[in-house]
Amino acid sequence: MDPIHITSEIGKMKTVILKRPGKEIENFTPRMMSRLLFDETPYLPIAQKEHDTFASVLKQYGVNVLYLEKMAKEALNHGGPQVKSAFLDRMLTESNYPSGVIHDALKEYLNSMDTQTMVNKIIAGVRKNELHIVYNDLASSVSDNPYPFYMDPMPNIYFTRDMSAFIGNGVSINHMTFAARKRESLFNELILNYHPMFEGQNIPVWRNRNHTYSHIEGGDEQVLSEHVIAIGISQRTTAKAIQEMAQKLFQKSSFNKVIAIQIPHNHAMMHLDTVFTMVNYDQFTMYPGILNQNDDINIYVLTPGKDGKIEYKHRTNLKQTLKDALHLSELDIIPTGNGDPIMAEREQWNDGSNTLTIAPGTVITYDRNYVSNRLLKEHGINVITVPSSELSRGRGGPRCMSCPVVRADI
Ligand SMILES: NC(=[NH2+])NCCC[C@H](N)C(=O)O
Q1: Where does the record place the catalytic residues (predicted)?
Q2: Of 152, 175, 252, 386, whose Cβ has the fewest other Cβ atoms within 10 Å?
Q3: Is 403 a catalytic residue?
Q4: 269 lines ligand 1 (CB under 6 A)
């Protein structure tokens, strides 16, 4: 069996990567919130408790739960001192310290820790009062301003869905949109290259993180079948990235159709999976607010054309496009908040459309979205709810908090 196997969004989940929220989600002030893509300051003990419940539900359903922070440690220990040193250099460069006295001091500080503490520290952020650096060059002295951090925390890293995505037997390691999240995928790159689970296995990389002008995030990437993938054109994913990815997938994989769905660009629906998810062979959830007055939406269906070129067709009917792509005669689209405009908007905001399917027709959702949950049950879905008062403050739900590595075929 391949170490990576994702041919659908709904096949029985076997292995998943999570990140337990840590210090990083309480190491910032209200003034830093919007830049760090948070809407509140979460209460860590409860967030951890809720996350542990989420993990234990997955385990009860037979999923092998791996933790990103632990895998990063294992990859660094397995890789040895050179890998660790190169990783730190890269992390510091991307934290704006490519060289100089601050780079050296931070490297020494982080290197003095055991590997797990070091990984956790990088994620939690390094405050200026933790080190006493004597500046001896102009650049370092000038950068010494009242801002309290040398290295910002990475509070969004518990949304493991976004930094990378496993597709087929390969992976996309994502160049993310905002500075607040860009460094996160260095951990995914490290794990792919040096973790014993992946190292030396020649895993196809559909797209790496070395891109400047286009970006993509896993919340927009949904494998609908072994041939079809849906990708959101969103605040976080550019059409250029989708086109490049389609090119690579058409050349090297079983995928021969990319359905690019254009969604509004705003923080409430930053990714496709905040408004649209697949929950069964022929059932999807959808936030009705993404459709215009005529119930249309911009969709571009990409397929392989002549001479390695890509063809695309513009469509506007989401239901029909999905029925055609998945060869279905009927399709049930379940509206978030049961179509009530107030409930739909409230529940979408708290990830009511962000269902995580762990087997065909079985999903994990946040308990707080009771209107959407009730409707899912009425449509025959087996709904398992998890508590969500603190986790939801980061604007992500069960799908965002999980990065599936292996699913059974459907
Ligand atoms: N797959 C998702 N919908 N992820 C949600 C990510 C939320 C996070 N605060 C961000 O803005 O990036």
Answers
A1: 400
A2: 252
A3: no
A4: no
Secondary structure of the chain: what % helix, strand, coil (to 5)? 40, 20, 40
CA of residue 395 to ligand 1 center, whole Å: 6
Rounded CA gap, 335 and 277, in Å? 11
Q: How far is CA 183 from the centre of its chain?
A: 13
- Angstrom distances, CA of residue 47 to CA of 21, 34, 55, 193, 273: 7, 19, 12, 31, 21
* Sign of the torsion angle spanned by Cα atoms 232, 237, 238, 239: negative
**Candidate from 220, 400, 401, 403 with most ligand 1 atoms within 8 A of CB, to mutate:** 400
Residue 59 tokens read as 């385990």
Question: Cα(144) to centroid of ligand 1, in Å?
Answer: 31
Asked if residue 329 belongs to a domain, the reply is yes
Q: Which of 117, 151, 185 is the last residue of a domain?
A: 151
* Pocket test residue of 275, 395, 399 for ligand 1, highest count of atoms within 8 A of CB: 395
Asked which of 151, 175, 208 is the last residue of a domain, the reply is 151
Regarding whether 252 and 115 lie in a shared domain, the answer is no
Domain ranges, residue 114: 70-151
Q: Say if ligand 1 is within 6 A of residue 274 CB.
A: yes
**406 ligand 1 Cβ < 6 A:** no
Q: Which atom of ligand 1 is nearest to the CA of 396?
A: 5
From the candidates 68, 344, 400, 403, which is the catalytic residue?
400
How many domains would you assign to the chain?
2
